[in-house]
Predict the 3D structure of the following.
Amino acid sequence: MEESQLTSLPDNKLSAILSSLPEEPGVYQFFDKEERLLYVGKAKNLKKRVSSYFNKVHENNRLRVMVRQIADIRFIVVNSEFDALLLENTLIKKHQPRYNISLRDDKTYPWIVIKKERFPRVYYTRKLIHDGSEYFGPYASVTMINTLLDLIYDLFQLRNCGLVLSEENIKAKKFRTCIEYDVGNCKAPCVGYQSVENYNESIEQIRSILKGNIAPVMEYLKQNMQYHAARFEYEQAQQYKDKIQSLERFQSKSLVVHPSIRDVDVLSILNDAPDIAYLNYLKVVNGAIIQSHSFEIRKKLNEKSEDLLIQALTEMRQRYKSTAAEIIVPVAPDIQTEYFQFIIPKIGDKKHLLDLSLKNAFHYRKEKLDRMEKLDPSQRTKRLLLQMQKDLRLSELPHRIECFDNSNFQGDYPVAAMSVFIDGKPAKSEYRHFNIRTVEGPNDFASMEEVIFRRYKRLIEEKKPLPQLIVIDGGKGQLSSAVSSLKSLGLHGKIAIIGIAKKLEEIFYPQDPIPLFLDKRSETLRIIQRLRDEVHRFGIEHHRNRRSKGVMKSELLHINGVGPATTEVLLRHFKSVKKIKQATEEELAELTGRDKARKIVQYFNSNQSSR
């Protein structure tokens, strides 16, 4: 038996508790020997769920450590799995156990409050005071708050003063009208010009707007407009018409989804990092998105997406007071409840909503990472390398990556090139060219085999560090050729090697017939593409230079008495055949001697006169 299994075997006390656990839904709590709460969990079947911690091998190290610390187990039986979910969320927020995930917000989000007082004020705040006032939100930005408050102040004449408008104070005439009354922003309830009943009608309409129920408000305004118009009270009718138009303008700015989608919650997740996940929640009411909230969850025990989603969903529905019967998610948590059902859309408007939520999560993650990387640039490098290691299934961080490509022109002048990235960035001083020596004709496979062998044989001989990853620009054939060279050098299995095919951006592994397809937006794929683009550019540049030099040399070699050695001397000095043609006999003679210089001048002069 493995050590991890031995360490998770319960003692007599725990065994007794496990045997007595009911097969009913409930919440369980793990405590250590100092009576500190380690973990709170929910279960559809308490006996099966809790026993599972002790009867199997746990791959996650933190989970193994937690199980070793368990000295006591307590549980609470509830009526349903949904009740267990709510209780679990409450206990986690209250006790914040060490091994439970934590939902993190970077800041205190703003709320709109309807103050509990006679003639309630409506304003925004970042502090929640439990005094009976009504709070709506939280909102992701102050801009959204201001938009809503501007609409409310435009539609309704509310007071914004802090006076205590008790019935006694108003009857005693303790107050007088202010400039807000004079400019038409307030109806002066402080001096009895507006009744409590009339004021509260406006408050009721405001509640509907803040809950996303704009239709009843619109109907109320239209009825009043028609009422005054029928009585030829055109000024009052126009005031209601202006309010209707304000409400319509606000409604047009809201993100309206398909009319068939009424009240739903949407929750998406990015769970591809080892210790953190990013989520976005959308609240849709009457076919319009009225709330969007992005946040992160710090993972503790390598939790699955399903577990993170249900934990976050419970918190979001309580926070935003949602009662939607449909929850749109990318994967369905394993929970059955009569209160809502999970929808995993594949196509259509609901899929578009899920994609929009995921897009918000992507932007939130990018914003967070950009902020962290500005404070500490090394964070980006570490994150990028960790992501590449995970995406490409590498055993170590790819600090140094070397990428190879072949190039030839109709079989002539075969060359290869190598680009190098160190910590995700090009290291151009490390780039290398290779002239193919042993291969005749256009044979990419043999050329790749030669280059890989030469490169790493030299590194071994010079005792230089090897890369953590080799990238071959090509498919299975080029990759197999490169692997053959690594095997010849005894390096197969010591350096990770992959191939990338150009057409579909497939990633190939040795001895694996099924390619890996990376997300087109992933940073890992972008790094590999940049490596390939760099090696392609560098190789083409070298091949072009070699080919042009070959053409120039062939022209000089047509001159009687001029051989390869003389050609090299001339090209090294004059840099091009054009400049050799322009040189005088005396200038050439200094390099080749008088006889060869005269022959070169005569050759170019005769060729020019014959044209």
